[in-house]
UniProtKB/TrEMBL annotation:
Protein family: Belongs to the nuclease type I family.
Gene3D superfamilies per UniProt: P1 Nuclease (1.10.575.10)
CDD domains documented for this protein: S1-P1_nuclease
Organism from which the protein derives: Mycena rosella (Pink bonnet)
Signal sequence extent: 1-17
Highest taxon of the lineage: Eukaryota
Record protein name field: Nuclease PA3
One Pfam family, short name: S1-P1_nuclease
The entry's keywords: Disulfide bond, Endonuclease, Glycoprotein, Hydrolase, Metal-binding, Nuclease, Signal
């Protein structure tokens, strides 16, 4: 009975990307590298001025996909690379994205939407929640792999439990490392990763994680992120093939010890990339559009000095002039 219940939970976890712990940790790492202006914009969009504003919504997309209303978004959490691990790994956007969309097309769509000032506040907040989640998903190697539905179909044993390789990568191996899945656990893991990024193991690699990232070329950028993680399927996740892992008596401790460093690397990378991505969106889209709006407002106000004679104006224009063009500021 007990093992039946545990298997059921494992199956549920298997459909998610990084579990709650992984996504919240990516978010906390990102929060650390946001500029003050980007952070205050994100807090405003999410209507959350707490110190966990990104971590609080990092797993929203996984909750949403499991609802009837959100079922359409399930394909956006991964890209099904039709490669052949461990012999050959590759991601090809045209081959792999699929007609219903994928993580890479979702990045393109929500990057555009989050900076589109014409959308409602609710739509912009939704776009930001999706972005925070999908940057995390893309760094999980098994979210960039079609083989056995991202290894959801690869049966393994981890710490005595029968589960699948995907859920071990998403949830059970990270939780074994950290010892829990609360926001406090995520924050503490993020603190460790941040110090490795600033002056430790990842210091020399971090520039390469974001090299060439370009919000004007989202598909190219996100495909590169997906390819980077997908390569790990061949080199780290299943270097001797999936059957060898199914045959293992238990993935703990040998396999776990082999891969846990890669899991940490991918979480750190996801957070660092997410921060850079949001900083770029803010600077290039949000702040730039704000400046243009202010310039337009100013020039229209200046224009009042050069208004034509009243008789040349329509009644409507006269009415606008009478209220001092105040309407410009409500656009
Ligand atoms: Zn997901």
């Amino acid at each position: 009975m007990t093992s039946y219940v545990i298997l059921g939970l494992a199956t549920l976890h298997g459909v998610h990307a990084w579990g709650v712990l992984g996504h919240a940790t990516v978010a906390y790492v990102a929060q650390n590298y946001l500029s003050a202006a980007t952070a205050s914009w994100a807090q405003g969009v999410l209507a959350d001025t707490s110190t966990s504003y990104l971590a609080n919504i990092a797993s929203w997309a996984d909750t949403y996909r499991s609802t009837t209303a959100g079922a359409w978004s399930a394909p956006l959490h991964f890209i099904d690379a039709e490669d052949n691990p461990p012999t050959s790994c590759s991601v090809n956007y045209a081959r792999d994205c699929g007609a219903t969309g994928c993580s890479v097309s979702a990045m393109a769509n929500y990057t555009q939407r989050v900076g589109d000032g014409r959308l409602s506040a609710a739509n912009i907040a939704e776009a930001l929640r999706f972005l925070v989640h999908f940057v995390g998903d893309i760094t999980q190697p098994l979210h960039d792999e079609a083989f056995e539905a991202g290894a959801n179909g690869v049966a393994v044993t981890f710490m005595g439990f029968s589960d699948n390789l995907h859920s071990d990568w998403d949830t059970y191996m990270p939780e074994e490392l950290i010892g829990g899945s609360s926001l406090a656990d995520a924050k503490s893991w993020a603190t460790t990763l941040i110090s490795e990024i600033n002056s430790g193991t990842y210091e020399s690699a971090k520039a390469s994680w974001i090299a060439g990232d370009d919000i004007g070329n989202v598909v190219t950028t996100a495909t590169r992120w997906a390819s980077d993680a997908n390569a790990l399927v061949c080199s780290v996740v299943m270097p001797k093939g999936a059957a060898a892992l199914t045959a293992e008596k238990d993935l703990y401790p040998t396999y776990y010890d082999d891969v846990i460093g890669t899991i940490e690397l991918q979480i750190a990378k996801g957070g660092y990339r997410l921060a850079n991505w949001l900083n770029m969106i803010f600077e290039t889209e949000v702040a730039a559009k704000r400046e243009i709006r202010e310039l337009v407002d100013e020039s229209e106000l200046d224009g009042r000095k050069f208004l034509p004679e009243p008789r040349a104006l329509s009644k409507a224009k006269l009415a606008r002039a009478a209220i001092g063009y105040g309407c410009n500021h409500t656009h």
